Amino acid sequence: METFIQIAQFTLAISILVVLHEFGHFAPARWFGIKVEKFFLFFDVKFALFKKKIGDTVYGIGWLPLGGYVKIAGMIDESMDKEQMAKDPEPWEFRSKPAWQRLIVMIGGVTVNVLLAWFIYSAMLVYYGDEYVPADRLKYGIAVGEIGEEIGLRNGDQVIKIDDKTVTRFDDVQIDILLGDNVTVVRDGNEMTFAIPDEAKKSVLDAEERFIRPRFSNIIGVVAKDSIGYVNGVLAGDRIMSINGTPINEWSEFQSVFDAAKGGEVVMQLDRDGEQIEKRFMVAQDRALGVGANVNELLVKDEYSIAAAIPAGLAKTWDVLTKQVRQFKLIFNRKVQGYKKVKGPIGIVEMMAPQWDWYKFWGFTAMFSVWLAFVNILPIPALDGGHVMFLLYEMISGKAPSEKTLERGQIVGFVIVMGLMVIIFGNDIWNLIKG
């Protein structure tokens, strides 16, 4: 059932994005009087699941869920319709229109993707607000494991700057470190800056887990029902003062001291609303106390009006775009080997929430809309950016590339795109085999 929900969320998100992207081409084409022959969600290789002709356009749903397309009359695209291109141009064809109109048609899909992401992020800020951990609230600094130490971080560090950018939100620290070159921390009262090794970035990507977490106070946030702590009267809100006489200041200290005490009697000194309480109980080596940190103590939530959410949504869209562009540095870095972690449809489905979660769904949809805009505008023939590249050449030089050049470019672009698809699907298949 969980897999079905993940597939359903992914399919709905992609359907929304593809339909709106293609509508971004369709609308200006029709506005300029260009005939659109087909408008398809997914690809109809050999046959379609559904199709219906309305006016001059056949609308349909294909069976291959790898995107979608509009077939614009008089345009050299992936259909490679040479028969139509061999005829004299008709006034309702793409090639008969001025270059500026053709340019608007070609950037329409990318424009809609960006506007959609902006709208979703703005709407989410109005509806959900913005919940995050301010970096300056980490009184006890950060907690890191072996991978974090490989980067150069240590427990208790206060991360204050990555490259030349001051850290304001702890939520952004992990991805910013991966994309950065150096990090500045305050350690034992001293400020220090060190380079971020590529080898450590590779370890982070290989582990596919968080390497940095906030350190919490010694206040208990949750007690599991029927756990050792619950049975012995430990309550949420209690402050852990000591374990077997060892003072406890923050949560990671409690975890290490408690783990060392397991296998015998544990004496906990608690502060409950100013009252000192002692709890004594035996804990087997393989048992846990069943309590958790007060993870909400660091969170703040900003509320947004519609007027405030619009510029904030645009800033969020821009931040996501710049991070996606910077990720290419990881993908093409020979030491990091980020290309091995590029996910295709299978990998993305596995990233979706196993239960239907509208907050995560719309967040993913907005992020992926930005990603589609970025990828499609790359100057690769067969993508929107390839067509834009040729149109800009025509507008600057005053001379359109020959149809033979466009055809060859389309073939080269198709080979490049297919090569990327092989890598992406290869990663998915390899990860399935390993799993």
What does this structure look like?
By secondary structure, the protein is an alpha+beta fold. The chain folds into three domains: 1-125 and 363-403, no CATH class; 130-216 and 294-302, Pdz3 Domain; 219-290, PDZ domain (Pdz3 Domain). 46% of the residues lie in helices and 23% in strands. The chain has 14 helices and 16 strands. The strands form six sheets. It has a four-stranded antiparallel beta sheet with strand order 6-5-7-8, with helices on one face. A four-stranded antiparallel beta sheet has the order 12-11-13-14, covered by helices on one side. It has a two-stranded antiparallel sheet with strand order 1-2. Strand 11 (239-243) and strand 12 (246-247) form a beta hairpin. 29% of the residues are buried. The model has no long low-confidence stretch (mean pLDDT 86).
Short description:
By secondary structure, the protein is of the alpha+beta class. It is 46% helix and 23% strand.
The count of β-strands is 16
Largest sheet: 4 strands, antiparallel
- Major sheet: order of its strands? 6-5-7-8
Task: Name the poorly predicted regions.
Answer: none
Number of domains: 3
What is the CA-CA span between the terminal residues?
19 Å
- Overall pLDDT metric: 86
Rg: 28 Å
Strand fraction equals: 15-25%
Estimate the global geometry from the Cα principal axes: elongated
Helical content band: 40-55%
Question: What order do the helices and strands follow?
Answer: HEEHHEEHEEHEEHEEHEEHEEEEHHHHHH
Backbone structural class = alpha+beta
Number of helices: 14
